[in-house]
Write a structure and sequence with these properties.
binds 5-bromo-uridine-5'-monophosphate, eight-stranded parallel beta barrel
């Protein structure tokens, strides 16, 4: 599936979720469909990344449980930086339990994810109850959910049926589920947002099963909307310069898809 030929701003008009509409418009306004996967383990480093690369990104993706010196001050400061530089925060928590348990994991514990993450994600494997549980916490706070339809890793078990069934679950919760973590667009419906990890210019993967495609491939061939880049930027000598390259490449591919370039 080639993905929507409409602009993000046009698609925003079709969104049942206000946050999805805000996200789509933000990408056009800021001219970036780059999400930074900020996979660092110290609070200071995470904040420095948000400060330094915030102007280039639409979304900051965190793994809050890899931070070794977490305090609530970190997420408070992240929210301030998100406001200042106009990006959304996505906690890549990959919830995967029954509805009642994920409610607690989302709302409570040390991290209190629902208090600061605009967007979270979950596996559809447990069935619709997981989405229902997360929605009970998230909807009142105007948050949103992405379902994992397909992973970037070699040998994953998410086949075409699994992706189609994931789409069907998402369709039952159109106000809370705003899209998918996937390697390709799943539907022609313009309101779904497709985010793709496993994006890098150089390198085909890592030693632990990660597989990479280029920004152009992700956006133009596979019809995704947002490229998620971690080590392609984090391992570069000049992270600002690297982020600019990914941003330009991802956004130009989108403009080309819309026929604008
Ligand atoms: P990388 O350094 O660009 O390879 O990091 C990719 C990030 O995206 C990392 O945080 C993963 O946990 C995340 N990820 C992924 O790589 N592949 C997937 O299918 C999903 C998440 Br879902």
């Amino acid at each position: 599936m080639r993905g929507s030929l409409l602009s993000y701003t046009e698609r925003a008009k079709h969104c049942p979720s206000a946050l999805a509409a805000q996200f789509l418009r933000l990408m056009d306004e800021k001219q970036t469909n780059l999400a930074l996967s900020a996979d660092v383990t110290k609070s200071d480093e995470l904040l420095a990344l948000a400060e330094q690369l915030g102007p280039a990104i639409c979304l900051l993706k965190t793994h809050i449980d890899i931070i070794s010196d977490f305090t609530p001050q970190l997420t408070k400061r992240l929210m301030e930086l998100a406001k200042q530089h106009r990006f959304l925060i996505f906690e890549d928590r990959k919830f995967a339990d029954i509805g009642n348990t994920v409610k607690h994991q989302y709302e409570g514990g040390i991290y209190r994810i629902a208090d600061w993450a605009d967007i979270i994600n979950a596996h559809s494997l447990p069935g619709p109850g997981i989405v229902k549980g997360l929605a009970e916490v998230g909807l009142t706070k105007h948050r949103a959910l992405l379902l994992l339809a397909e992973m970037s890793s070699a040998g994953h078990l998410m086949n075409a049926d699994y992706a189609a069934n994931t789409l069907a679950i998402a369709e039952s919760f159109p106000e809370f589920v705003i899209g998918f973590i996937t390697q390709h667009a799943l539907s022609t419906d313009p309101h779904w947002i497709y985010l793709t990890p496993g994006v890098q210019f150089n390198g085909s993967g890592d030693k632990l099963g990660q597989q990479y495609i280029s920004p152009e491939h992700a956006i133009l061939e596979k019809g995704n909307d947002v490229i998620i880049v971690g080590r392609g930027i984090l391992a570069a000598d000049d992270r600002v310069k690297a982020a600019k390259k990914y941003r330009d490449s991802g956004f130009n591919a989108y403009l080309q898809r819309c026929g604008g370039k």
